[in-house]
Design brief:
Structural class: alpha/beta
CATH topology of the largest domain: Rossmann fold
CATH architecture of the largest domain: 3-Layer(aba) Sandwich
Radius of gyration: 25 Å
CATH class of the largest domain: Alpha Beta
Shape: elongated
Strand content: 15-25%
Length: 329
């Protein structure tokens, strides 16, 4: 009220101006905004964001759930959702989840007011589990978007992609180049790698060649783990000649470690990554990988923000994945 009197405007104009909401700001003229901000500064007024959120029964936050932090693919998702949220005066909270229990905990926290909407990197989650975990958000009408190869729970926005087909394409490429013994470096057996390992085993089982079944080991979760995976591979009596890993940044670390140990890529070992992130283009040799043509979630992030603001409805997005053949494999 004091700011309205000082600026000689209505309290509604002050509320619109100090909300920070771009849509509301457009309803207040530039000169009026200037008078309100000047009056607020003279009076030492500070906008109470918490009180505003309580009045609106909103947190003005998006929750971004990732399997882990520090990976280029995950970090880009976090940056793009944060950028989209900030444009509409929202903020983001980033959390990690790696099991069904973790996901259920995050969903409960979002329902209790942690955020107004959620983006969930649910890759590797069984579709039936995804339906069960996120159903409470559908029931409560809370905007939710999940990134998953093929799950499309009703009432949610989804980002689907055919990584299985791209992985099979990569395996066929390696077999065609004469590789019979393969090492598969996963995040960690089970959890997010489970469905990918099924694809891998089905591929070689269909070839009826039991000697070609892949050697599976952890190592895609960090660079240190990738280096340890190389040591394990080199210690094998019957070494694989091709290495497929579940992240590009671990593939680059594997290439560097193989070279440090005196081996040539791809002459001694072919290396194939996953994600098609930029770092794969700047290693030597350049990384053969599977992934989308463009690693961007800008459109999806803007959609979720609009849904939170009541200006959009659930929508399905699709990201095409394929094999990018470069020099490492």
């Amino acid at each position: 009220m004091d700011v309205a009197l000082e600026a000689n405007v209505s309290t509604a104009a002050v509320s619109l101006c100090l909300s920070g909401d771009p849509a509301k700001l457009r309803r207040v003229g530039a000169s009026t905004q200037a008078r309100i901000k000047s009056a607020a500064a003279r009076l030492g007024y500070v906008h109470n964001r918490v009180a505003s959120q309580l009045r609106k029964a909103r947190s003005d936050r998006l929750c971004v759930v990732l399997p882990q932090l520090g990976m280029p693919f995950s970090d880009q998702i976090a940056r793009e959702f944060e950028s989209a949220a900030m444009k509409s005066n929202l903020s983001t909270v980033v959390v990690t989840a790696g099991s069904e229990r973790d996901w259920q905990r995050v969903v409960r926290e979002v329902e209790s007011g942690l955020a107004d909407g959620i983006f969930a990197y649910a890759d590797g989650m069984d579709p039936d589990v995804a339906n069960r975990v996120f159903q409470p958000l559908v029931d409560s009408g809370r905007p939710c978007m999940i990134l998953h190869p093929d799950a499309r729970p009703e009432g949610l926005s989804t980002v689907n992609f055919r990584r299985r087909d791209a992985l099979v394409e990569a395996l066929e490429h390696l077999v065609a180049k004469g590789h019979r013994k393969l090492a598969y470096v996963c995040q960690e057996p089970g959890a997010f790698s489970g469905r990918r390992l099924v694809t891998l085993n089905d591929f070689f089982a269909a070839r009826r060649d039991t000697h070609a079944m892949p050697f599976v080991l952890p190592g895609a979760k960090s660079r240190k783990a990738a280096v340890q995976a190389v040591a394990t591979i080199l210690a094998q009596e019957d070494r694989p000649t091709a290495i497929v890993t579940e992240s590009d940044f671990s593939a680059v670390a594997i290439i560097h470690e193989l070279q440090r140990c005196g081996f040539s890529v791809p002459d001694d070992f072919a290396v194939v990554g996953c994600g098609n992130v930029e770092s794969g283009l700047f290693c030597n040799p350049r990384l053969t990988t599977i992934g989308p043509q463009s690693v961007s979630f800008r459109e999806e992030a803007e959609h979720l923000v609009q849904w939170v603001l009541g200006e959009a409805k659930p929508k399905n997005f699709f990201s095409e994945w394929k094999l990018y053949i470069r020099e490492s494999g």
